[in-house]
């Protein structure tokens, strides 16, 4: 099962049907988060968390309880994350899971499309904002927290991930995603991190311009 996460939308795709028909057979699950605080966004993402719970992908934190739970799903879960808004949505979902003392299981892959953006790759004003936010207010900026989640969250730490980007993306430059790859490798995830440069496709438009190449790398990841 594949869950598509982007800014404002979560979508679930039946991967078997997708492979049979070579097109995305999907249905709307939820209208999700804006760039609000994690806590205030929990209500927005509630339908998605219920869907994962009903599908056997959310369980109590205790590992023994997970193993003993007859509803534990054997279906693999793939998160297809579009842009930094999708990373934000994933971070909110994982924060909700933590608050409820639950555990996300059977995540088999992360497909990061045109993302993520490490804070150190942002423009000078962004770096200045980061310094002010941390130094004066004593809190971690949202984009930092989101990137840290995508790198080191326990449910994702050993999960294979494919980062897709292009030189033609003006919103999230290729250099930003390459920096994210380096940071993930430095964090000890080199064995599960792959990257692919689509060249000249626009932001989150890699499949639209290069469908055959896109499918090839999805299948290999």
TrEMBL record:
Keyword Endoplasmic reticulum attached: no
Membrane topology: Single-pass membrane protein
Keywords assigned: Membrane, Nucleus, Transmembrane, Transmembrane helix
Subcellular location: Nucleus outer membrane
InterPro entries listed in its UniProt record: AB_hydrolase_fold, DUF829_TMEM53
A GO CC term assigned to this protein in UniProt: nuclear outer membrane
A Pfam family the protein falls into: DUF829
Family, per entry: Belongs to the TMEM53 family.
The protein's name: Uncharacterized protein
